[in-house]
Design a protein that fits this description.
The structure is a single chain. The protein is mainly α and 140 residues long. The protein has one domain. 66% of the residues lie in helices and 0% in strands. The chain contains five helices and no strands. Helix 1 runs parallel beside helix 5 and helix 4 packs antiparallel against helix 5. It is elongated. 21% of the residues are buried.
Length: 140
């Protein structure tokens, strides 16, 4: 099943409008319990930063947007990178706790890209992209 560019744009604009309405000006996020370290970002270890940026790159380089199987492969690759973050985590204390507030919903979002419906996979792709973009707002 193919979707027109207009359909995809309407879906993306709807998601963007919803996302913008749920943000606050104090860098509070829609991610439950995730907050800044006072006015500063939390320090993340290099493996975490690399993993998040690798996932962002996967999304930026994803071009087979009309193929449901491609979304399933992408989800699988994102999950592999996600688990590398856990395997290589050396963080501790409150920064580690805040990272888990960030990562927990990301896991579910990544899994949701592996949908059985192309339209749903496309929407969930955008949600993962949005979530990954929030990382640099809260971690350095």
């Amino acid at each position: 099943m193919k979707f027109s560019i207009n359909t995809v744009l309407v879906l993306l604009m709807s998601f963007t409008a919803f996302s913008c309405n749920s943000q606050t000006s104090s860098k509070q996020t829609t991610i439950e319990n995730l907050v800044l370290n006072g006015t500063d970002r939390w320090k993340a270890n290099e493996a975490t930063i690399t993993g998040i940026h690798n996932m962002s790159d996967m999304l930026e380089n994803f071009t087979d947007t009309e193929n449901l199987n491609s979304y399933k492969k992408l989800s699988n690759n994102l999950q592999k990178e996600f688990y590398l973050i856990f395997q290589n985590c050396t963080m501790s204390g409150e920064s580690h706790n805040q990272l888990h507030h960030y990562l927990h919903p990301l896991k579910a979002l990544i899994e949701s890209v592996e949908s059985n419906e192309l339209k749903e996979a496309m929407i969930n792709f955008e949600k993962v992209k949005y979530h990954l973009n929030e990382f640099d707002e809260f971690f350095k």
